[in-house]
Amino acid sequence: MVSTRERIVGASSALFMERGYAGSGLKQIAQASGAPIGSLYHHFPGGKGELAAETLRASGRAYQSLVEAIFDAAPDLVTGVEWCFDGAAETLRTTDFADACPIATVALEVASSDESLREVTAEIFEGWLRALTARMAAGGINPEPARELATMLVASLEGGFLLCRAAKDTAPMAAIGAAMVELVRGALPSNQH
Amino acid sequence: MVSTRERIVGASSALFMERGYAGSGLKQIAQASGAPIGSLYHHFPGGKGELAAETLRASGRAYQSLVEAIFDAAPDLVTGVEWCFDGAAETLRTTDFADACPIATVALEVASSDESLREVTAEIFEGWLRALTARMAAGGINPEPARELATMLVASLEGGFLLCRAAKDTAPMAAIGAAMVELVRGALPSNQH
DNA sequence: GTCTATAGCTTGATAGAC
DNA sequence: GTCTATCAAGCTATAGAC
Asked: Containing domain of residue B161, as a range?
């Protein structure tokens, strides 16, 4: 059973990913969710900003769970990193490069123009970095470089989504994944420097 | 002497960077450039799409020249990479995190909704990758990993802009720069594997 | 080439019946 | 809670005087 509210957030998330925040109209979101515009304002009295904040938080949580599940299922850290980039490339391919990061486009749009939404995106990214830093440490990386590697992983994945969507080609994600794997491998204490 | 046309493109570039494509109105662009809306349609009969294409191409060329100049001025490849990330962090700091990549926000917005603008962004990124691949090779990196490292550099720089603007903090860029330097250093043939 | 006025449409948001 | 009708303001784009 999916509530009207959940359908609105789902439609909003999909449209934000494909067309961004300013490019997605409330009428469009209402239509895609099958609800009239009045229902939207019933569930989100704060209007578009409130809906966006809730959409970003829900998508951010879902993505974090997905990445955590990948790392928890992988036999070791390096394999987890490989699976992340392979999975991202696979998703891009099967959705005609529409399904990428649900936060990035909106985050860039609002960073300098909507302070309260900027804070929401900052909290989401910080949550991702904390979760990944913990996985890095659990995988054998020293505490200090763990945060740096987690940051590099998120940044390169986001940059990979950007380059792949622009080019309609997954080659950049493959190159970035390979580089990221080498970086993580080199940071494992078992390696010589 | 700056022509009306150049002022329109300049205002358009700044607004696209801060608010994106859909979020920047033509009236806003006209006002920021000091030209009436009629002049805008005189210089760009194709309307918003044509203005955006020209704005993206001009900003893309300017950014490519900037990065090329940094690498050409640096004493060696690793120093060039360091300067890129230091410069990016410095620009973010001095512009209150408004001045980042002039292509990324628009590229994500149009990737799945405007095919002709998507192609423009793809060409710009490809130009950057070619220029950086050449610099990597000139700096001593073997031909094969040169393109991979160039891709990683662009992706991590773009991801760094995203994380820094969202957090209003340059710490992510510093972490990413350090990781990127290590990656390039490890790929130099003078190093052991 | 520059500029004003405005058409035609869509936006975010609200009021109120049911 | 659901849905329709509507408002004021914004948008892109055009027409036409100068």
From this structure: 56-192
